[in-house]
């Protein structure tokens, strides 16, 4: 395996490798002063997707590994396309787990999502109510501001945070363009704090983060130090503007098969699980040629259920698995 790879997709923690990441190119270096403290550890959201992460073949092929590492080296977002179930979202969790980058910040996108939703929220009504009730000093504005997942990812840190912007193709037409400036500049302003920055004692305000921490923001601006590892996923339901595409590394993931599929089964069911379930894996992959959509979590469901429903009856295993791995559009008819 090429030694230049920082992330290798081996399914085991190797946090020391992130120290081998060289400084960014000059045009992707940012000036934020690093904050003390480590990112929160990975949580159940990652462990549900990754499973036990037993020793297994690499989770990505050589080309995918090279593109993932290109995004790390160049400090550029990774735009990941592919069918549902191809591992687009899991990739972000895998990088965070292997490189010890902490909890994955997740920003699920819907048609009503705006850029500010990802950056921060300001509870103006709550601030007014608390001031009226005199429950705290009226100048404690930091408790009414919470950074969103994108805003938290851009906080200055020694190591990059991992941010998953999930299903960007579901967004309003303006959101991809709105992301451009933040992605390029690595910083953003909080007008509510900028207006107060020149008042004595207000040049630094502690605000809440998407992690639930309290961190200082100086002069009303968040400026990153290490640009986050940003994974933007798309199911291919729309095209993105050329300016955004120029600022991203594009990776297309095919549905996991062969070694990748074996690694996924082992991660969730233990070493040797791929060998013990060759019949169901074969049944699942034989259907590939019909062009229908079968996410790989259907295979996981089939393996789990047949372990409990039938143990020694191959015919019944195949029958139950067949019910679970039908094409998605067949289920809707």
Which terms summarize this structure?
five-stranded parallel β-sheet, 333 residues, elongated
How would you sum up this structure, described in words?
- There is one protein chain.
- The protein is built from 15 helices and eleven strands.
- With 333 residues, the chain is of the alpha/beta class.
- The strands form four sheets. A five-stranded parallel beta sheet has the order 2-5-10-1-11.
- The mean pLDDT is 86.
Provide a short characterization of the protein structure:
With 333 residues, this protein is an alpha/beta fold. The chain is built from 15 helices and eleven strands.
What's the count of strands?
A: 11
Structural class: alpha/beta
Termini, distance in Å? Answer: 46 Å
Strand order of the largest sheet: 2-5-10-1-11
Give the radius of gyration.
22 Å
User: What portion of residues belong to β-strands?
Assistant: 5-15%
Helix percent band: 25-40%
Order of helices and strands: HHEHEHEHEHEHEHEEEEHEHHHHHH
Please work out how many helical segments DSSP would assign.
Answer: 15
Low-confidence stretches: none
User: Average pLDDT, to the nearest integer?
Assistant: 86
Shape: elongated
- Major sheet details: 5 strands, parallel
Blueprint (SSEs and pairs):
Blueprint: H1 44-50, H2 62-74, E1 78-81, H3 88-99, E2 105-108, H4 115-119, E3 120-122, H5 124-133, E4 145-147, H6 149-153, E5 162-166, H7 175-185, E6 187-189, H8 191-194, E7 204-208, E8 214-218, E9 221-223, E10 229-234, H9 242-246, E11 249-252, H10 258-269, H11 273-276, H12 278-286, H13 297-309, H14 314-324, H15 328-331
Parallel strand pairs: 1-10, 1-11, 2-5, 5-10
Antiparallel strand pairs: 3-4, 6-9, 7-8
Helix pairs in contact: 1-3, 13-14
